[in-house]
């Protein structure tokens, strides 16, 4: 979505200012509401066909998410299960029997209690699933008998899709219904061969179809507008005011929910990468890191902007911000089809390392330190450079049905290809308290003595700039459009209405 909203004019009265802002919001919302994109049923069938072709012969058992038991929140389906079925009701499972590369799929459904249906709605029955989704359907109560029969008589290997919510936490997830169910099956059939199907499905998910790209575009457009709303907000006094502006923008334009817990950290909180309390005070002179985006029709955007509370960056903040932006643009130049993802990462690291050295925040580009976490410096020498202490995280990950989704450059020769969707998100985080976390070694004492007086000038400055990208037949495209140039941000913030103090 092109950035056509510069500065809102100032009006002589509060009433007219509020009216103008409300009208502008309505105009922006109405102009930004395209027809709702959908992924066709045939595409879900094609995904199952692709999985069957890669398995050849076998049985796939997958579990969807459970009815929420921790609160009264809405249900959201697990990414892998949604990817294969588009069935977004709780307490379901899928069994696909594959022979000769062709699969027959059955969904196992749990009916909702008639009284509960008045509260939460009715669920599709078997006839509806067959008619609208092209899959067979049975009662969930029969799942155990069906799977035991296949395990005992089919002679086929089993492939499982565990029911964790996000692959980042898969190793911690051992007590879900699906995990327990498959352990029981394996215990009853000692000779059964059980394999993990996630790698196969992840490789399918890594290449985004045009329909998926359309949904990601919309998620990024909505998320970008949320960031504009936060930049237009009267000077905030608390992190949660910015959080409210961001999430209001997401919801107003059709976002289903935040893609992840909104990260809004001012001052020292901006140096904590995944700070999500969003309750602290912010004051003029602080930079606020806003890492927040929306999910649209199941597809997650991921955008970060780092803005000055006062509306103007200090000279020190400007220097760090421009350094991070230059690193992001270097990575963009190296993130085109056929190029190595490592080259993109290295270019962003090298730009920041040289800049940090020029500012005196490291002893030199190649100066080393002793990290406070395990690293084999002989095998990973770059991880032990002082500059890496100030830019701890990587610069990219895939996006899609999960905010950390598979991407094609994760595999094989690690090059970007058409159908990749991903972020570029370099950052720099500075604070003297961070130096206190270093092990007490001679090398670190020398590093601290040299840079601490300089770090004090940049105290508690965190800057991360993150955008969303897709690779299409035309090449690399940035699909998030929130202002990111310093003059753009300052101009938009200069038009903010005055803060009203009760």
Structural overview:
With 502 residues, the protein is of the alpha+beta class. The chain folds into 2 domains: 165 residues, Creatine Amidinohydrolase, Chain A, domain 1, CATH 3.40.350; 286 residues, Creatinase/methionine aminopeptidase superfamily (Creatine Amidinohydrolase), CATH 3.90.230. It has a 6-stranded mixed sheet with strand order 4-3-2-1-5-6, sandwiched between helices. A hairpin with a 2-residue loop joins β2 and β3. α9 packs across α10 and α11 packs antiparallel against α12. The longest helix is centred in the middle third of the chain and has 23 residues. It is globular and about 70 Å long. The protein starts with 13 loop residues before the first helix and ends in an 8-residue tail after the last helix.
Q: Catalogue the unreliable spans.
A: 1-32
CATH fold name of the largest domain: Creatine Amidinohydrolase
- Number of domains as seen in the coordinates: 2
CATH class of the largest domain: Alpha Beta
Question: What's the main sheet like?
Answer: 6 strands, mixed
What spatial form do the alpha-carbon principal axes imply?
globular
């Amino acid at each position: 979505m092109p950035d056509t909203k510069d500065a809102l004019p100032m009006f002589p009265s509060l009433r007219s200012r509020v009216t103008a802002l409300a009208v502008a919001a309505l105009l922006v919302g109405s102009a930004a509401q395209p027809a709702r994109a959908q992924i066709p049923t045939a595409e879900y069938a094609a995904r199952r066909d692709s999985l069957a072709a890669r398995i050849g012969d076998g049985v796939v058992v997958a579990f969807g998410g459970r009815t929420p038991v921790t609160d009264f929140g809405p249900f959201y389906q697990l990414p892998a299960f949604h990817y294969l079925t588009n069935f977004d009701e709780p307490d379901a499972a899928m069994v696909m029997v594959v022979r000769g590369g062709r699969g027959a799929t059955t969904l196992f459904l749990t009916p909702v209690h008639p009284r509960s249906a008045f509260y939460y709605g009715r669920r599709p029955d078997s006839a509806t699933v067959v008619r609208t989704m092209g899959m067979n359907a049975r009662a969930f109560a029969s799942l155990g008998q069906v799977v035991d029969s296949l395990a005992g008589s089919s002679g086929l290997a089993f492939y499982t899709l565990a029911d964790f919510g996000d692959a980042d936490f898969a190793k911690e997830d051992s007590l879900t219904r699906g995990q327990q169910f498959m352990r029981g099956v394996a215990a009853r059939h000692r000779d059964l061969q059980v394999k993990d199907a996630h790698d196969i499905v992840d490789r399918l998910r890594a290449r985004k179809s045009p329909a998926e790209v359309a949904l990601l575009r919309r998620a990024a457009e909505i998320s970008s507008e949320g960031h504009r709303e936060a930049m237009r907000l009267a000077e905030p006094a608390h992190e949660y005011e910015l959080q409210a502006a961001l999430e209001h923008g997401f919801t107003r334009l059709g976002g289903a929910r935040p893609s992840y817990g909104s990260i809004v950290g001012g001052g020292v909180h901006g140096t904590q990468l995944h700070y999500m309390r969003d309750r602290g005070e912010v004051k003029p002179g602080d930079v606020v890191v806003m890492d927040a985006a929306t999910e649209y029709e199941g597809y997650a955007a991921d955008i970060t902007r780092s803005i000055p509370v006062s509306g103007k960056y200090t000279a020190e903040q400007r220097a760090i911000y421009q350094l991070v932006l230059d690193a992001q643009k270097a990575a963009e130049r190296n993130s085109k089809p056929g190029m190595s993802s490592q080259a993109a990462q290295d270019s962003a690291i090298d730009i920041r390392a040289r800049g940090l050295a020029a500012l005196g925040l490291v002893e030199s580009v190649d100066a080393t330190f002793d990290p406070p976490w395990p690293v084999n410096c002989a095998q990973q020498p770059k991880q032990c450079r002082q500059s890496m202490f100030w830019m701890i995280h990587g610069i990219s990950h895939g996006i899609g049905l999960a905010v950390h989704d598979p991407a094609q450059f994760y595999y094989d020769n690690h090059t970007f290809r058409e159908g990749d969707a991903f972020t570029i998100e370099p950052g720099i985080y500075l604070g003297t308290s961070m130096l206190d976390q270093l092990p007490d070694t001679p090398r670190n004492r020398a590093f601290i003595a040299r840079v601490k007086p300089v770090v004090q000038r940049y105290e508690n400055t965190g800057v991360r700039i993150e955008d969303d990208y897709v690779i299409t037949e035309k090449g690399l495209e940035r699909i998030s459009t929130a202002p990111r140039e310093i003059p753009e941000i300052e101009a938009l913030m200069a038009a903010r209405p005055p803060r009203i103090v009760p």
